């Protein structure tokens, strides 16, 4: 399965479609929560599509004038925020059996978007739920994958070191 390049490409396309769908949902949800200009953000997402939303975020302006309601922070800033969020929720995620808590799941939680991996009934009470709702979701998903991957690498290294120490202690 993983040796088949076609299957890998298909999987990448499915992930891309999921991210685009989640980004559109986040934009629509955000637009409904905005006190003014919400209809403009919803219209932009519906009429002009993802490319226009990206342009809006990059320029900071709507095509018809006014500020873009979606923020696109620097990758460094977003990485710091997502690392802090992951540290604050990791124990809870593991308690819930989310041993494979993914970057996409982290991004969905920070955007306040429920899914089977991130049910609103479980996470809505968290201070991290929806904290970055007005942030570019695609960027959050990309950074989330990086942050969660780094965490798992560090976690596995720490477990390996602890196992070595236990073996040394048992041998002594």
Offer a concise description of the structure.
The protein is mostly helical and 172 residues long.
Structure description:
This protein is mainly alpha-helical. Helices cover 70% and strands 0% of the residues. It has helices at residues 5-33, 38-59, 75-95, 103-111, 120-123, 137-171. The protein is elongated.
The helical percent reads 55-70%
> What separation lies between the terminal Cα atoms?
46 Å
Count of beta strands: 0
Characterize the main sheet: none
Shape: elongated
Low-confidence stretches: 29-42
Element string (H = helix, E = strand) = HHHHHH
Structural class by sheet pairing and helices: mainly alpha
Radius of gyration over alpha carbons? 19 Å
Question: What is the mean predicted local confidence, pLDDT?
Answer: 75
Strand composition percent: under 5%
| Total helical segments | 6
Topology:
Elements: H1 5-33, H2 38-59, H3 75-95, H4 103-111, H5 120-123, H6 137-171
Keywords summarizing the entry:
6 helices; elongated; 172 residues; mainly alpha; 70% helix
